[in-house]
């Protein structure tokens, strides 16, 4: 069986830049991001969409990249933590996570921020603590920084998603 049978050319926007690449149709988005584009914020955790460490934004919705096939993002916009801000210009959520000490080991942090960003980008009207907890429920923090994470997200929402 020919390996070219399992390849497809895809084009999508990655962290604001259009990219085109040929991928094996069986390749996950997580593997494409980490191995081809060398983006390290999405982490391999459970490989079952349970832990949220691999979360990225696809068309402004948080998804687990460990089970999504790379070919599924053809024509989409994908944003990783690297695309939210830079070292000199952090996203308000990144600033709030620092301000509220909402991270310890850091393994879950990118997934937590991506899920919170999805909530902020898609919120309509008032957002309760329960709404925030629900939006972050797919992210596991082994260190137990949940209260600080909640406070950081609430702070950014209160500021309207703007500067911290």
CATH topology of the largest domain: Ubiquitin-like (UB roll)
Fraction of helical residues: 25-40%
End-to-end Cα distance: 55 Å
Number of spatially distinct domains: 2
Count of individual helical segments = 6
Please write the string of helix (H) and strand (E) elements.
EEHEEEHHHHH
Count of distinct strands? 5
User: What is the approximate shape?
Assistant: elongated
Uncertain runs are: none
Give me the secondary-structure category. alpha+beta
Report the mean per-residue pLDDT as an integer. 93
Question: If you compute it from the alpha carbons, what radius of gyration comes out, rounded to the nearest whole angstrom?
Answer: 16 Å
Which percent range describes the beta-strand content? 15-25%
Secondary structure layout:
Blueprint: E1 7-14, E2 17-24, H1 29-36, E3 55-58, E4 61-64, E5 77-79, H2 81-84, H3 92-99, H4 109-122, H5 129-135, H6 146-158
Parallel strand pairs: 1-5
Antiparallel strand pairs: 1-2, 3-4, 3-5
Helix pairs in contact: 3-6
Keywords: 2Fe-2S, Iron, Iron-sulfur, Metal-binding, Oxidoreductase
GO molecular function: 2 iron, 2 sulfur cluster binding; metal ion binding; oxidoreductase activity, acting on the aldehyde or oxo group of donors
Protein name: (2Fe-2S)-binding protein
């Amino acid at each position: 069986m020919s390996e070219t049978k399992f390849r497809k050319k895809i084009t999508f926007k990655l962290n604001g830049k259009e990219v085109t690449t040929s991928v094996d149709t069986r390749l996950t988005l997580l593997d494409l991001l980490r191995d081809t584009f060398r983006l390290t914020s999405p982490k391999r955790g459970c490989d079952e969409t349970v832990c949220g460490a691999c979360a990225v934004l696809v068309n402004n919705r948080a998804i687990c990249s460990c089970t999504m096939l790379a070919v599924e993002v053809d024509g989409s916009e994908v944003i990783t933590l690297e695309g939210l801000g830079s070292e000199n210009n952090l996203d308000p959520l990144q600033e709030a996570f620092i301000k509220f000490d909402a991270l310890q080991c850091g393994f879950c942090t990118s997934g937590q921020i991506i899920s919170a960003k999805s909530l902020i980008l898609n919120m309509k009207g008032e957002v309760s603590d329960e709404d925030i907890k629900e939006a972050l429920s797919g992210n596991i923090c082994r260190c137990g920084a949940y209260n600080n994470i909640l406070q950081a997200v609430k702070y950014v929402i209160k500021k309207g998603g703007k500067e911290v």
